[in-house]
Protein: RAE2 geranylgeranyltransferase
Amino acid sequence: RHYYGGNWASFSFSGLLSWIKENQQETGINDDCEDWRKLILENEEVISLSKKDKTIQHVEDFCFGDQDSAEDVEEAGALPKLPLFGVSGAEGVARESEEEHPPMESSLPEAESREPEKATGTEPASAMEGNDTEIATENESSHSTALGESTLELEKTEAAPSAISAQEPKKITYSQIVREGRRFNIDLVSKLLYSRGLLIDLLIKSNVSRYAEFKNATRILAFREEKVEQVPCSRADVFNSRQLTMVEKRMLMKFLTFCLDYEQHPDEYQDCENSTFAQFLRTQKLTPSLQHFILHSIAMVSETDCSTLEGLQATKKFLQCLGRYGNTPFLFPLYGQGEIPQCFCRMCAVFGGIYCLRHSVRCLVVDKESGRCKAVVDHFGQRISANYFIVEDSYLSDDICTNVCYRQISRAVLITDQSILNTDSEQQVSILTVPPVDLGKPAVCVIELCSSTMTCMKDTYLVHLTCPSTKTAREDLEPVVQKLFNLNTEKETENEELEKPRVLWAVYFNMRDSSGVDKKSYDGLPSNVYVCSGPDSALGNDCAVKQAETIFQEMFPTEEFCPPAPNPEDIIYDEDEITPEESGFSNSPETKPESSTEESSSGGSSAVKKDDNEE
Structure:
């Protein structure tokens, strides 16, 4: 591929159009070298890899906006013959975007326990638990301050109340979308980060968080009785809510308090352990509206497939994440989810890791005697040797995957002209779970992003829809799109249609979910070849983090997974002692504390300067 991240990537609008075109064409890898088999020795055999990525299917895109001679319109600032993807869009328009939307986003702390004496203010209020972590935010002058109570003020100061929201939305044409294409960073996979999830902990621990910025998800929504409404989830939200009666508020707080330490009260749920979570909620003297909020907007679990214990665990996880960085449990990375793999690539590159784009791999070379993989052969006919090989599932051919049964994810991405729930603030990051119309069908997760997330142009919203597949993506998701949005290009006469956001452009596609496949299901893979999956259908990133750590520990059982890295500016390389081989393919350079000038000049390949107060 010519972009980073595989199916985790983000694209500008023109980049996504190119990706759509590639996946609608039946083309594979061209063989640039025909005589590569002479590289294979007599005691070796090859495992051929797939020549075409089959993880994306049923790609359909539609334009509902005004296509006013957009054929000759070019993306503003586009560079010829250069790929447009996540970071290029991010870096290319960062300064201009910040002028439009002064950043008010959270940056993760480098370590939770570092310099606690600098924290100021009181801890922000939470539904159940206070904030134990220092967070920095940026204002227009990039002045960083430690947040206490002001974390909860973030939502109030993000954007001034706008009179436009009460008026008819600004008309956006297709040519404007094309022209402003670099303002878009469109994720192939839609996820949010739980504030106490494994990925946030890993970003902090490894110091990879220095390469990314995050924005709070500002509201949790529910779809009930054909209407979208906001769900109160923090203590303050519950008691300020006008949707709930006083009795319902007490019921909800009592139940959520129980969920936080449900393990201490087994008598409350042990009779329902074999029941679904939805059935358990009916026994808890909760009103139908509270049951709906808890099931679909707090626990975010299936009505038919989720057990009582799984539902209680999901509810507890939601509540524990409240108040760490804001009054919802979720963060979203600026410039899209595709920034996360690139952040790890940047850290890897600092210590000698090499990432090759546009570089296909033809086969694995296996030693017949030991059964271990020795090398790969690339499409240039070059043989590259190594001790371990990590292969993404999409590279494996049908011969290897004969016994593998894959699940599928249905995805849709929409560009709309207004929010699904208009408020005084236009800059909202919202998550909505739409319950299934028919029992047995999956619920649909909807994430709506505003322009201050740096994922779409001004006066538009980027909407992601995701669910486990039962049919094609369009068949699974279009009924939900029709409920929430106006798909008609002509002027509507009905008031209900006028209130709905208008879809300007949409794409549907199915993505393979290989996250649940056991390595033993793959036929004939050597023991030193490890398979990692593509994205899964869950909202968070725990599956990917667990998988990465498991593979790492199998290869290097005595090593720490993603240890804290020194700051790049503190690494001093001794150029005289770095050979070309070491600079290209060696392991990470050794680092050690610098105690004196003499020691740093003669102490190996590199040294690390540390502050006096740093561990």
Summary: Residues 245-321 form a domain with the Guanine Nucleotide Dissociation Inhibitor; domain 1 fold (CATH 1.10.405.10).
